[in-house]
């Protein structure tokens, strides 16, 4: 009886701790949303508050007034995220699966090469020169898809471990006995059993594409190709320039713009799709991370 009481008390303490941690993770989102509905003057004078002293929709009115440009950036982000994630979910398992097969003669060599890229890289300048001078992707939609995010060594190793630990080799041998080829085994046997890790990697890659601003900063100068993150960055630069420029009219125009609250409003718009999609992937995400991260 005493043991049951101690276990119950332990469970209560753990639940309280988890609830507090959950609230701590939610508070930044609450602050973000409330700040987007705060009047700019109040935000500057009073700072960020969990409950606005003066409510205002100026930031959202400003966004709606420039809906064409913002929605185009939103569309670019959606397109890049969808295409990049889909391509990554095709390429990553095609590399990870051979690495998980111990009967593949080159699996040790390829595993070393993949792991090596996790420790060393060529640096920013050679990478920039390669993509712009050899592949000529500057100011194209491909600049937002291919560099850095399309194939990640960590994701490959995570998926390799999942294949190795969860796809019995006897199942592959049975398929071979039935006359199945390697591609048929991969697409009809391995991938259907790999939904948890596919959802996990898809979530990783999708969030990476959605929040990416570096590729746009390095390779895109055409405003028509700005993603949501790059548009936000460029807009904040313009507002800061107006605020520091000489001349009363420029300063006056910058003060009228709801710069801080608008930044929060755009962040709210940017994070909403991820918050909506995450609950649908959560069960696969937890399972894929738990099993795929086991050392194989």
How is this structure best summarized?
With 296 residues, this protein is an all-alpha fold. It is built from 14 helices and no strands.
Description:
The protein has 296 residues and is an all-alpha fold. 75% of the residues lie in helices and 0% in strands. The chain contains 14 helices and no strands. The protein has helices at residues 2-36, 40-46, 58-65, 67-100, 107-119, 124-134, 153-166, 169-177, 182-190, 195-211, 214-219, 228-244, 248-256, 259-292. Helix 3 packs across helix 14 (259-292), helix 7 packs antiparallel against helix 10 (195-211) and helix 8 packs across helix 9. The chain is flat, with a radius of gyration of 24 Å. Mean pLDDT is 81; it is low at 250-255 and 292-296.
Helix content: over 70%
The Cα radius of gyration reads 24 Å
Helices, by number, come to 14
Q: Helix and strand string, N-terminal first?
A: HHHHHHHHHHHHHH
Strand content: under 5%
The beta-strand count equals 0
Largest sheet: none
Report the end-to-end length measured between terminal Cα atoms: 42 Å
Report the structural category.
mainly alpha
Shape: flat
Poorly predicted regions are 250-255, 292-296
Mean pLDDT: 81
């Amino acid at each position: 009886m005493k043991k049951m009481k101690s276990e119950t008390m332990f469970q209560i303490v753990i639940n309280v701790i988890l609830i507090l941690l959950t609230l701590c993770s939610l508070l930044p989102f609450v602050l973000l949303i409330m700040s987007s509905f705060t009047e700019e003057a109040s935000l500057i004078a009073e700072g960020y508050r969990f409950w606005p002293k003066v409510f205002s929709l100026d930031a959202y009115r400003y966004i709606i007034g420039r809906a064409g440009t913002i929605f185009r950036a939103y569309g670019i982000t959606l397109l890049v995220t969808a295409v990049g994630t889909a391509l990554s979910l095709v390429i990553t398992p095609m590399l990870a699966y051979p690495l998980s097969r111990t009967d593949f003669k080159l699996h040790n060599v390829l595993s070393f090469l993949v792991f090596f890229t996790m420790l060393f890289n060529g640096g920013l300048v050679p990478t920039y020169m390669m993509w712009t001078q050899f592949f000529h992707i500057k100011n194209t939609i491909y600049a937002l898809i291919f560099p850095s995010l399309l194939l990640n060594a960590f994701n490959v190793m995570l998926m390799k471990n999942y294949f190795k630990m969860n796809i019995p080799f006897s199942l592959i041998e049975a398929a071979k006995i039935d006359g199945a080829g390697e591609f048929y085994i991969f697409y009809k046997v391995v991938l259907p059993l790999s939904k948890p890790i596919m959802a996990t990697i898809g979530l990783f890659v999708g969030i990476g594409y959605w929040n990416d601003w570096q590729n746009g900063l390095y390779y895109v100068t055409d405003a028509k190709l700005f993603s949501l993150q790059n548009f936000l960055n460029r807009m904040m630069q313009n507002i800061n320039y107006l605020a520091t420029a000489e001349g009363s009219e420029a300063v006056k125009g910058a003060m009228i713009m709801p710069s801080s609250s608008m930044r929060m409003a755009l962040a709210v718009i940017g994070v909403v799709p991820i918050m909506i999609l995450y609950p649908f992937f959560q069960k696969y995400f937890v399972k894929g991370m738990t099993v795929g991260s086991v050392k194989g």
